[in-house]
Amino acid sequence: MKVHFADRLDAVPPEAWTALHASARVRAPFLSWTWQVEWVRAFAEGRRLDVRRVEDEHGELTAVLPLYEARPGVLQLIGGTDVSDYLDLLARAGREEAAWAALLDARPPHDGVWDFHAVPQESPTVGVLPALATRSGLTAAVAVEDRCPVLALPASWEAYRASLPGKHRHELARKMRRLEREAPGARAVSCRRPDEIAARLGDFLALHRASRVGKARFMDERMETFFRRATAALATEGAVGLWFLDTATGPAAAFITLEWDETVGLYNSGFDPARAALSPGLVLLARLIEDAIARGKRRFDFLRGEERYKYEFGPTPEAVCTVTVAAGIPRTG
């Protein structure tokens, strides 16, 4: 295999990137051409990009390792953990180990540290890269960084509700009844078309910022620009949804979801603090899960973070890892 180095993302044509993404084990939108391009546009100004593509003996694209210099001597995966829940080497399924071997063989002496975040624990990167790096005379380490609660979806909403522990099932029913009683006419609204999402993204951003001080700081002007561009682009691909719990006096809660394969991912949220006592976010989240089941989805991924409310819906945690590779310590004597 041969490794090519470039300082720009479009050294890999968008069509080739998209085809590679479709053939990979991890097909979450964070590794898509659309997401990576929008991240670079929003956050990579003044940063050095280091995009490495791997081709097999026939010249066919086998893998892409999209890196940027996070700080002097430290290379991280393009996508940034502030906005990307899963990152990894983008490689054809089954060719990951060969691609990593080629990338290690071609690793320049001055490469510094590879500091990869948000790598799914089940990824071959976690399984094979440390051992390959050690055999190449490098130091390598893997550590669990965070967990993503993931819910395996049954065939029906009734089966799902029956699977919940009694306490959670009754509490959810109580909150749904209370909302119906105190906010009659409240309804879950889904926006999927690009024009629908564009029309209501401002409502989401307002609720997101109102939720708490930390979210208001997070959603600065640059972040809002990224959200607007990324959601608009993903909407044309059918990979994003915007949900609201609308009431007579305005939206009480909102979610952005991302979709890939048979998975719905809960990407970001907002709610009206004045209505926190009605638990509008939890009620809306139940409707999202019900909709995912009705559409035949197999997984509901709460994405990174183990907030307590997520576990009220019965998911199982799946780890994401930090994988670090650096030059070995020279021998003395």
Query: How many helical stretches?
Result: 11
Portion in helices: 25-40%
What proportion of the residues form beta strands (DSSP E)? Answer: 25-35%
Task: Label the structural class.
Answer: alpha+beta
- Profile the largest sheet: 13 strands, mixed
Task: Sketch the topology as an H/E string, one letter per element.
Answer: EHHEEEEHEHEHHEHHHEEEHEHE
How far apart, in Å, are the first and last alpha carbons? Answer: 36 Å
> What oligomeric state best describes the polypeptide chains here?
single chain
Note down, in words, how this protein is organized.
By secondary structure, this protein is α+β, with helices and mostly antiparallel strands. It has helices spanning 14-22, 33-43, 96-105, 124-135, 157-163, 166-182, 194-211, 213-218, 221-235, 280-294, 308-311; strands at residues 2-6, 49-55, 61-71, 74-77, 90-91, 113-120, 138-152, 187-191, 240-247, 250-260, 263-271, 299-301, 316-327. Helix 3 packs parallel to helix 4 (124-135), helix 6 (166-182) packs across helix 10 (280-294) and helix 7 runs antiparallel to helix 9 (221-235).
